[in-house]
Amino acid sequence: MGIENKGFTNNGGIFVNSMDDPTIAQAIKHGHRLEFFHVPSSSVVDFKAMITSFSDNYESSYDSEDVYGRMDPIQTFKSTKRTVTVDFDVVAASLAEAKQNKEKCALLLNMLYPVYSAPDGAGASSLKAPPLFKVLFGNLIMDSSSGSRVPGSAAEGGLLGTVSGFNFQPEVEIGFFSEDSGALYPKVVKLQCQLTVQHQHKLGWDSNGQPFNGSFPYGETSGKAQEEAAAAPAPQEPLMSLPEAEGDLLQSVDPQAEKKEAEEAAMMSLPNGG
Questions:
Q1: Is residue 234 part of a domain?
Q2: How many CB atoms lie under 10 A from the CB of residue 150?
Q3: Are residues 210 and 248 in the same domain?
Q4: Are 30 and 109 within one domain?
Q5: Given CB 3.0 to 4.6 Å as the disulfide criterion, which of 76, 78, 93, 97 pairs with 21?
Q6: Long-range own/partner contacts, residues 250-253 (CB < 8 A, 24 or more apart)
Q7: Model pTM?
Q8: Same domain, yes or no: 133 and 255
Q9: 10-residue averages of pLDDT along the chain (274 residues)
Q10: Could you list the residue range(s) of the whole structural domain that residue 132 is in?
Q11: Per residue in 195-208, pLDDT tens?
């Protein structure tokens, strides 16, 4: 474990011993920053977007019900949940920047806690607001109701959601900056978070086959695929005839009625009607 109070250079020679870290200018120039906005307190913290891992997961859930005499379960749609997972490094090029990063990380961890009301006469306080976040990372993590434009700040157009936690992990092998007081400041901190998204706009499709939000989820969209689909002539006849059972499935909108019909059909197939 290395401990020193000097700057350092990584393997690629990117970081130098000064606050003139070229990655800062790069992040500012191209907007490559990861910004967190704490909704109840309006606190903000941002980091140079040194992303090491990124995933945007969409998972649809259904209620599945088995029916006697039918091989396939009845699937009733419930919801589609979106979770964004980001791993990123917080890197210091100097002792001064390492101190600043420590303050940023501390603020970020404090954002996981709610806001409480002022104590009453008995000295008790109650929960006033949960720790909701808005997160912004270019057009990959943003509120797409802003359209194709990347928002200027997380407060303005960050993606709203709840964060399950942050994993704060200093890179011990790379080392620390130190002071005579014995205080240690990591040169590199690995952070990980997962955002469960709470969309602030309508999702899905209208009856004309158009999405409610053409900019979802990443802002920019040419609309070319939608235009081509709209311009394509509708087939005069089905490309192939659906089996009767499949046709029933496509037309079914009432799972309970479908369940009853399936059970009646199964009973009729038994000897002597059951």
A1: no
A2: 17
A3: no
A4: yes
A5: 93
A6: none
A7: 0.71
A8: no
A9: 39 36 57 89 92 95 93 95 96 94 96 88 82 94 83 92 94 93 94 94 92 87 57 52 43 55 58 52
A10: 3-116+125-228
A11: 999 999 999 999 99
